[in-house]
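Quick start: what a row looks like.
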Amino acid sequence: MERSCVRVPREAGEDTRQELAAAGLLDDEYEIVGDDGRLYLPVTDAEAAREAYTVVTRDVPAHDGQETPADRLGFDPSYERLGDVAIIDEDDPERAREIADAIVDSDLPVRAVIDRASKVKGDLRVRDWTVVAGGDGDDRPVTETVHREYGFEYRLDLSRVYFSPRLATERHRVTEGVEAGEQAVDMFAGVGPFVVPIAARGATVVGVDLNPAAIEYLRENARHNGVADRVTAIEGDVRDVAADYAGWADRIVMNLPHSADEFLDSAVTLAGDDCVVHYYDIQHEDDPFGPGERAIREAAAAEGYAIEVLTRHVVRSYAPHELNVCLDVRLSR
């Protein structure tokens, strides 16, 4: 069966396997294979894995005795798993039902299959879903699950909050730069995938989000992961909150790529005398970093900050000719 695989030298195989498993990217339906001094590790999300690894397409066998959805269907369906929920994107209800039944009836640890019924919409960044299969006899909402990422667990309900597992590697990249004792603000915190690991590094973190359900899950996830004493979760518009934490932040996360520029004045208000800002943007491939960098320079210079761009980083391809990028910028008085 042809699958997307991370290709690494054989000597790096075990470390890579552990990293992919921790990120929730290792596809345990298929075997790891070796050839000519290299290992090929099947992954569940090629796009997310490509942020940090070389990804190729390779024929790999399914684990012996494990029945996959492809075994039942006769073709390899497109789906992704988030905890024990599988997500599909099908316009044809009959095809969606066929794929969903095959997923639930296979040996995958999946209790429900849901189909995207709308794009992400509104200020709360949620989408509609159609439950196609499973979920019977469970007290939990069908769309609620627990996602595991780099050793942390996040409970969330996809019908009430926005969450992208594809940013796992990017969140880990940012978190690795955090030092104990920092004061950090996540301006659009969601259920806490930046907040929790940053707090686990020994930082004090303020997470803000408009969505009351996201804040509810953020508090639960902070407790569950043992960092509640270092996390303050605030429901509201960060533009209304910034003045309460003026000059407080050593680090700011701005992961709202379609409109982060509208919040730069608030970011500058939050920034301390020496502050690193992780600014996410979506721009055309011809100039992916220019618009964001110019907007940051304008907002920061107005308040007397010097600007140093630390990293210009492509996170992933977002759409044809459009890139999701991150600017890591240091603001200094």
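That is the whole record. The mean pLDDT is 93. DSSP finds ten helices and 17 strands in the chain.
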